[in-house]
Specification:
Number of domains: 2
Structural class: alpha+beta
CATH architecture of the largest domain: Alpha-Beta Complex
Radius of gyration: 23 Å
Shape: globular
Catalytic activity: Thiol-dependent hydrolysis of ester, thioester, amide, peptide and isopeptide bonds formed by the C-terminal Gly of ubiquitin (a 76-residue protein attached to proteins as an intracellular targeting signal)
Protein name: ubiquitinyl hydrolase 1
Keywords: Hydrolase
CATH class of the largest domain: Alpha Beta
Domain USP: 1-267
CATH superfamily of the largest domain: Cysteine proteinases
Strand content: 25-35%
CATH topology of the largest domain: Cathepsin B, Chain A
InterPro entries: Papain-like_cys_pep_sf (IPR038765), Peptidase_C19_UCH (IPR001394), Ub_carboxyl-term_hydrolase (IPR050185), USP (IPR028889), USP_CS (IPR018200)
């Protein structure tokens, strides 16, 4: 096979996976009313991908993986509990004060910004009666506070804005516009290490700064319907991807988008925003 041996090895490895996937699709189209469980497909993936079995880091975790520190403080005895949680994206609430629609007679409300959403995510929160913390010192559920810090930032920061709101009876789309920066998203205020040891502004590490690479937009009124499009940066130009249609667009058009998911890339010491 010469220089194609690597390709051959990969194709041979994937062959059984493709065959099992074909069987799965055939089973789904047989018309049986019995629920189908794709166990065989799962076990083939388990067999040919060791990282799937033992949690070995993959390219996904190395690119998108960060770490959160979750601090819970018991308001009765003062015990503090810390837990580290890996993440591939941050799901951010749009603060409730920005969701209220104004009438023509009312003063326009301030624009919600991405930093408003990040601050809401990391602000100190007092847990309500339905979320009482099990304090190991008190040996009972107690009132407590919770706070998130970012312990480790990823190379690519994926920010998901929670635009779908569920209640007991219905689900709504939050159509609030969220202003986001094209360049220089500053994450130092949310990083545990820098917040605990403040540094002069001019010594800000480049790895706390992120530049926009892509935006995903949901069009429609609900999660069960609608359409998704994306804006992407390529060689300094922005493009809009709508199924098979690709259009060159301006930065202004991107910044007006009601973002659903934002992808930011870490700025290296050698990079400037214009080179991204």
């Amino acid at each position: 096979m010469g220089n194609t041996c690597f390709m051959n090895a990969i194709l041979q490895s994937l062959r059984s996976l493709v065959e099992e996937f074909r069987k799965t699709l055939c089973s789904l189209w047989q018309g049986s009313q019995t629920a189908f469980s794709p166990d065989a497909l799962f076990y083939v993936i388990w067999k040919i991908m060791p990282s799937f079995r033992n949690g070995t880091s993959t390219i996904v975790t190395s690119v998108f993986g960060g770490v959160l520190q979750n601090e819970v403080y018991c308001l009765i005895c003062g015990t503090e509990s810390r837990k580290f949680d890996p993440f591939l994206d941050l799901s951010l609430d749009i603060p409730s004060q920005f969701r209220i629609k104004t009438t023509k007679d009312q003063e326009p409300r301030p624009t919600c910004t991405l930093n408003d959403c990040l601050r809401s995510f990391t602000d100190l929160e007092e847990l309500d009666e339905t979320e009482l913390y099990m304090c190991h010192k008190c040996k009972k559920r107690q009132k407590s506070t919770k706070k998130f810090w970012i312990q480790k930032l990823p190379t690519v920061l994926c920010l998901h804005l929670k635009r779908f709101h569920w209640t007991a009876f219905l689900r709504n789309k939050i159509d609030t516009y969220v202003e986001f920066p094209m360049c220089g998203l500053d994450m130092k205020s949310y990083l545990l290490e820098l917040c605990n040891s403040p540094q002069p502004e001019n010594s800000l590490p480049e790895k706390c700064l992120y530049d926009l690479a892509a935006v995903v937009v949901h069009h429609g009124s609900g999660i069960g319907s609608g359409h998704y499009t994306a804006y992407g940066l390529h060689e300094g130009r922005w493009y809009h991807f709508n199924d098979s249609t690709v259009t060159l667009v301006s930065e202004e058009a991107v910044l007006k988008a009601k973002a659903y998911i934002l992808f930011y890339t870490e700025r290296s010491d050698q990079e400037s925003p214009a080179k991204l």
